[in-house]
Design brief:
heterodimer; A: 6-stranded antiparallel sheet; elongated; B: 475 residues; 17 helices; globular
């Protein structure tokens, strides 16, 4: 009898959890608040050209360069370059390397002729994702997008801005998917920080509820392991 | 088994891309899911096809999920059109393709897991105490992480393992004395036939393993040899000749295996060094079953505690089985190890002929057989798992290490290995099944609890003994 009650309760919990899970509102991916100039690509490289004006802010004490965007990839099987500020490795670039544990990374030219590569995050699947990077004049970086929020610092930052391109970077031409990127710069990095904080706040609010897990998980556990008290008594 | 099936995305097992490509194109270009086929040398050095495999891990679309099912874009996949492997494994798995999205891949994995579980259940129905101890010992002490990973994946080696590990025990059940009831006897022969079929359908060498394990079992367990006369000799010779011809005719690898690569090519290691090295190294290859070898394509580093405990427990089980050894047991055990060395040399000689490269999964089907037969032939008054306290101790250790192994595999595929034991976070960047209401942490938790309960329950089918220690006279 007790067993029957336990099964009935666990099934009820499982059904309740599944109903809660299935009836959650649809997830809508939030995007970065608008800023600066926006460029789009359907997969082919888009040439923007010399944008020394954007990079000049990095010469100021509290200056910044802020890049944000959305990329939707159809495959993660091959190396892809998403954006560059200058040809080769002489500027800032953003790329994907499937060989390095499916790595998304930024690259920065340094004044000592080295190139600093900074991990943004791993990308384990195709589909859309958001990214942004705030570069401050002192080399401090903040990389934000979806649930990623990382900071880092590049010493001797010296990025060229002679050839802005999207859907191309570091020798790689075109991407397998679509992308949109916004660039802005200014003399007060706090403005960009506010944009990022606004995005993060919207992103957290947009996440689907996980409340359904309580009844569902409890129901499954009750079904699988039985009544823990009764089990112990045996 | 379900939790292990969910622990990794499609294409995670070794050569699973090749296996999936072969499954999709086994019926040729006329199949609606195999869009184009190419012979070797056109798109790549190997034959292949353009197929619509969904690698997005999409079980079904749900609007509230962060990750969305993406449209399937047909891609080029290598396949076994060149006749490298038997086709029946691929033909059986091909039946699941119409289920759509990654649900077909998951269903194939579940089918393979259910087949293994079904055969285990039949074993329990048919076995007596002696066979049950050897069955359960060989099953539980060699199961994870590599065996369970293979059984619950889409790889012919999974079928080979299930077929070889069960086949010899079904043969014993079917030929045992006193005879089983009629229906049980039929069931034993039917299950033996299924095992033979699985080996034939999966890999050419698996059927050779099946034959070898059955022959060793028969010769080690049948003490009465019929008196030799011309009739018996004639019958044995005729059967051997016909069987050998059929084997060489229909099993491509049999002929291949007989051409042992004994002559080194220029620049290769000399025979004496090569053979003695692998004789010493033989034991390290089956040990890969405990996680010292590569588990899957991305090869998570299975925490050392898993294989250390696995080897320690295996050692304990073997020591108990050798308390009272029999000639048959020693000959069968030593002979099996020698056979293993021969197979390892044979594989390595044809691959790199070096000191290092021989993946454990090639010989994995023989490991449960060798352990199981050793227990079966033992005349020890008691086996390790018959002592109640040791049984509890072993089950606790196995449950803990199983949890660690499952966690490390799931974690590696979800968002990279942390080399720690922490909650797994999927987030936006990690991989997980779309349309599954359970997260990876819950899957690990349920897998851990189910495994512990499974071990506890399955071992209750074997009675325990209580050992009392008597003080020595001097004390």
């Amino acid at each position: 009898m007790r067993n029957k009650i336990r099964r009935a309760v666990s099934l009820l919990l499982v059904v309740a959890g599944l109903v809660m899970w299935y009836t959650r509102p649809a997830f809508v991916r939030v995007e970065f608040p608008e800023h600066g100039e926006t460029f789009e690509s359907a997969g082919k490289p888009v040439n923007i050209g010399d944008r020394g004006d954007l990079c000049s802010s990095l010469q100021e004490q509290n200056g910044y360069l802020f890049i944000s965007g959305n990329i939707s990839l159809t495959t993660t099987g091959s190396t892809q370059g998403f954006l560059q500020t200058s040809d080769g490795e002489t500027g800032l670039f953003f790329e994907y390397d499937p060989g390095e544990d499916s790595l998304l990374r930024f690259g920065f030219n340094q004044s000592d002729e080295n190139v600093a590569r900074v991990k943004y995050r791993n990308l384990r699947k195709s589909g859309p994702f958001n990214f942004s990077i705030l570069v401050r004049s002192d080399g401090t970086l903040r990389m934000v997008g979806d649930d990623t929020d990382e900071t880092s610092k590049v010493e001797n930052l010296s990025i060229g801005c002679s050839n802005f391109r999207i859907a191309a970077a570091n020798g790689s031409e075109g991407i397998e998917g679509t992308m949109a990127v916004s660039f802005s710069s200014g003399s007060d990095a706090q403005q960009a920080e506010e944009l990022i904080d606004g995005y993060l706040s919207m992103y957290r609010r947009s996440l689907p509820s996980t409340l359904y897990q309580w009844p569902l998980y409890a129901g499954v556990l009750l079904l699988v392991i039985g009544n823990p008290w009764a089990w112990r008594k045996k | 088994m379900v939790c292990w099936s969910l622990s990794n995305p499609p294409g995670s097992t070794h050569d699973e891309d090749f296996t999936l490509g072969s499954i999709w194109c086994i019926n040729g270009e006329g199949d609606s899911h195999c869009l184009e086929t190419y012979p070797g040398g056109v798109k790549s050095n190997y034959p292949g096809g353009l197929v619509d495999i969904d690698k997005h891990s999409c079980l079904f679309e749900i609007s509230s999920s962060i990750n969305k099912c993406e449209p399937i874009i047909p891609e080029f996949y290598r396949n076994s059109e060149g006749g490298l492997y038997p086709t029946w494994y691929y033909k059986t798995m091909n039946l699941f393709i119409p289920l759509g999205s990654s649900l077909n891949v998951f269903s194939m994995r579940l089918f393979n897991s259910l087949t293994a579980i079904g055969l285990l259940a039949v074993q329990l129905i048919l076995s007596n105490k002696q066979r049950r101890i050897s069955l359960l010992t060989s099953f539980t002490f060699t199961l994870f992480p590599m065996s369970i990973f293979l059984i619950t994946s889409i790889h012919p080696s999974g079928w080979a393992l299930t077929g070889v590990a069960n086949g010899w025990l079904f043969l014993l059940a079917a030929t045992s004395k006193p005879r089983l009831e009629r229906w049980k006897n039929w069931l034993a022969w039917a299950a033996w036939g299924v095992c033979a079929g699985m080996c034939l359908a999966s890999r050419y060498e698996a059927f050779l393993f099946f034959l070898a394990s059955n022959l060793i079992t028969l010769s080690a367990t049948r003490s009465k040899v019929p008196s030799l006369n011309w009739r018996v000799l004639g019958l044995v010779s005729a059967t051997g000749t016909l069987g050998g011809y059929a084997l060489l005719r229909f099993n491509k690898i049999a002929e291949w295996a007989l051409r042992f690569p004994i002559v080194p090519q220029p620049g290769q290691i000399k025979n004496d060094q090569w053979i003695t090295h692998w004789l010493l190294q033989t034991i390290a290859v089956p040990i890969e079953i405990f996680g010292t070898g590569a588990v899957g394509e991305r090869s998570p580093v299975v925490p050392h505690v898993v294989w250390i405990v696995g080897i320690a427990l295996l050692g304990g089980v073997l020591l108990f089985s050798f308390i009272k050894t029999t000639t048959a047991q020693l000959i069968a055990f030593a002979g099996s190890l020698l056979m293993l060395s021969f197979i390892i040399l044979s594989f390595n000689g044809r691959l790199e002929r070096d000191f290092f490269n021989l993946s454990g999964r090639y010989i994995i089907p023989l490991v449960p057989f060798i352990l199981g037969l050793c227990i079966y032939l033992s005349k020890s008054p008691v086996q390790l798992m018959e002592i109640r306290r040791l049984r509890i101790f072993a089950i606790v250790l196995l449950s803990i290490t199983h949890t660690i192994a499952l966690h490390s595999v799931v974690e590696t595929y979800v968002d990279g290995q942390s080399y720690a034991f922490l909650p797994i976070s999927v987030g936006e960047s990690g991989w997980w099944w779309i349309g599954l209401p359970f997260g990876p942490n819950f899957i690990v938790l349920v897998g851990a609890l189910c495994f512990a309960k499974f071990l506890t329950l399955i071992w209750t089918t074997v009675p325990t003994v209580q050992i009392s220690v008597i003080n020595s006279v001097g004390q």
